[in-house]
């Protein structure tokens, strides 16, 4: 684990750095508070800080306050080194944002023990953040395909509509449906059906832009929310999705099956609700199905 050592005294700084290096830490030493904050703002910066209180310019308390004011999600654990030993002084240091302190002159075994304690706290926080991210993914993503689930996709559509109300822009919605999917399930079984859904989702996701939102709307239906995309570009995107899905058969250990998809495109520059765009895209999808499937259709209002 990286440790940032901040001390204006070169001898003290070198002693702490050498001790931590012997203990297996990657010690990074700087001479002042401004340099410390610059290092902490870098990618993959240290999250353990051994910080001297009394320094010229920006002292340790000011550095603590600046670290806490940054409000980083990745917590930085600060161990304050100080010759101050009055209770009110220690309280002042902790109130400024320090997590722990060691009074000078200090024992290096104690310093390393307190850093180990800080490392355990950081590890616990990482585990909590990872658990929170897993819960967020589970709440917003479809467990089978890995795409956004229905609720998250509709939320994305509502946000784009709200944004277009503040900053007028065209929103295109593409609704797609895998052709003859029930026949695939009936003929090959639901395990193959799931494989087809996952592979179709993967192919469509690979064909969308990074700022598009794509989700599983339900069953074998998918939605793509394409902000800043006019009708012509929306049709082009839908055609790209169609071509990608049917480019090759979906294969498994004992066979393969051809998969095609029908898509409906709706576009609006003044959408006020998700329901209207959804209805238009659904009507266009229905037209694509009636016209023979494996094609792109545009809703009548956008077409006009």
Structure summary:
With 304 residues, the chain is an alpha/beta fold. It has two domains: 2-139, Rossmann fold (3-Layer(aba) Sandwich), CATH 3.40.50.2300; 150-303, Reverse transcriptase/Diguanylate cyclase domain (Alpha-Beta Plaits, 2-Layer Sandwich), CATH 3.30.70.
Main sheet characteristics: 5 strands, parallel
Regions with little confidence, pLDDT below 50 for 5+ residues: none
Q: Give, in spatial order, the strands making up the sheet with the most strands.
A: 2-1-3-4-5
Helical amount among residues, as a percent range? 40-55%
Number of strands: 12
Q: Which CATH class of the largest domain is shown?
A: Alpha Beta
Contiguous helical run count: 11
In CATH, the topology of the largest domain is named Alpha-Beta Plaits
Q: What is the assigned CATH homologous superfamily of the largest domain?
A: Reverse transcriptase/Diguanylate cyclase domain
């Amino acid at each position: 684990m990286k440790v940032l050592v901040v001390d204006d005294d070169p001898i003290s700084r070198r002693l702490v750095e050498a001790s931590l290096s012997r203990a297996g830490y990657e010690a990074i030493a700087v001479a002042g508070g401004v340099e410390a904050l610059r290092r902490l703002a870098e990618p993959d910066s240290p999250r353990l800080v051994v910080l001297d209180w009394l320094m010229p310019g920006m002292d340790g308390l000011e550095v603590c306050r600046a670290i806490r004011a940054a409000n980083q999600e990745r917590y930085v654990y600060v161990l304050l080194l100080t010759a101050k030993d009055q209770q009110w002084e220690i309280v002042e240091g902790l109130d400024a944002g320090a997590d722990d302190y060691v009074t000078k002159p200090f024992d290096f075994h104690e310093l390393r023990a307190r850093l180990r304690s800080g490392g355990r706290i950081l590890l616990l926080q990482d585990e909590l953040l990872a658990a929170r991210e897993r819960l967020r993914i589970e709440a917003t993503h479809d467990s089978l395909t890995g795409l956004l689930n229905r609720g998250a996709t509709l939320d994305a559509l509502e946000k784009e509509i709200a944004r277009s109300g503040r900053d007028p822009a065209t929103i295109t919605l593409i609704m797609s449906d895998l052709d003859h999917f029930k026949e695939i399930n009936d003929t090959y079984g639901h395990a193959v059906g799931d494989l087809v859904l996952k592979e179709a989702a993967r192919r469509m996701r690979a064909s969308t832009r990074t700022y598009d939102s794509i989700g599983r709307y339900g069953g074998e239906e998918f939605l793509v929310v394409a902000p800043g995309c006019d009708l012509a570009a929306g049709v082009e995107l839908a055609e790209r999705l169609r071509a990608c899905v049917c480019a090759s058969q979906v294969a498994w250990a004992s066979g393969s099956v051809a998969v095609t998809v029908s898509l409906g495109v709706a576009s609006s520059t003044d959408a006020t609700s998700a329901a209207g765009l959804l209805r238009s895209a659904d009507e266009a999808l229905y037209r694509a199905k009636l016209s023979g499937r494996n094609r792109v259709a545009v809703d009548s209002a956008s077409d006009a």
